[in-house]
Amino acid sequence: MNIDTAFEFFPILETERLVLRQLKEKDAPNLFSYFSKDEVTEYYDLESFTSKQQAVDLISRLSQRYEEGKQIRWGITLKGNDELIGTCGFHSIERDHFKAEIGYELHPHFWGKGIMAEVIQKVVEYGFNTMELNRIEAFYDPENVSSKRVLEKNGFEYEGVLRKRFFAKGRFVDAAISGLLKEV
């Protein structure tokens, strides 16, 4: 198996409490419900959503990028309830280097319950075992201590800060980087 295996058919992943599945247009209202909250987009490179159409458009872009083999983003649902509560997945996939960047977000109602740590563990396992990645990295705002903490819980090592790495919301922002290697 290799990276392209993830793009032959969309994989469904399960944890003890969760089902990670492909996003659908019907998820747009739930996606909007949390992407319209400033506390969710505070450290994101996009403004809070103001219309449900933005959620529809995002789902469409993510689906297109999956079809192109450039990105895989799972919708997070609780077992027994197909309502979307967040997403997690890989982007910036570099096949030649067996590397990808992980990204995620979660509805604030579910913060502090260990859900994202559980999700990341499963997504990382899939990345290393099925996609045969060697390195998974994450960029996050250095002030986002919750993101740093959930990455550390999953074995990611803090590697430093890239000063003024991104231009977001009208200003240059630093990016902390953490990485996880397969052989660790």
Based on helices, strands and strand pairing, what is the structural class? alpha+beta
**What sort of overall outline do the alpha carbons produce when their principal axes are compared?**
globular
Secondary structure tally: strands? 8
- Rg (CA only): 16 Å
Order of helices and strands: EEHHHEEEHEHEE
Mean pLDDT: 94
Q: Can you summarize the main beta sheet?
A: 8 strands, mixed
What is the correct CATH architecture? 3-Layer(aba) Sandwich
Count of spatially separate domains: 1
Q: Which strand order does the major sheet show? A: 1-2-3-4-5-6-8-7
Q: What are the low-pLDDT stretches, counting only 5+ consecutive residues below 50?
A: none
What's the CATH class, please?
Alpha Beta
The DSSP helix count reads 5
CATH superfamily grouping: Gcn5-related N-acetyltransferase (GNAT)
N-end to C-end Cα span:
20 Å
CATH topology: Aminopeptidase
Level of helix content? 25-40%
Beta-strand fraction estimate: 25-35%
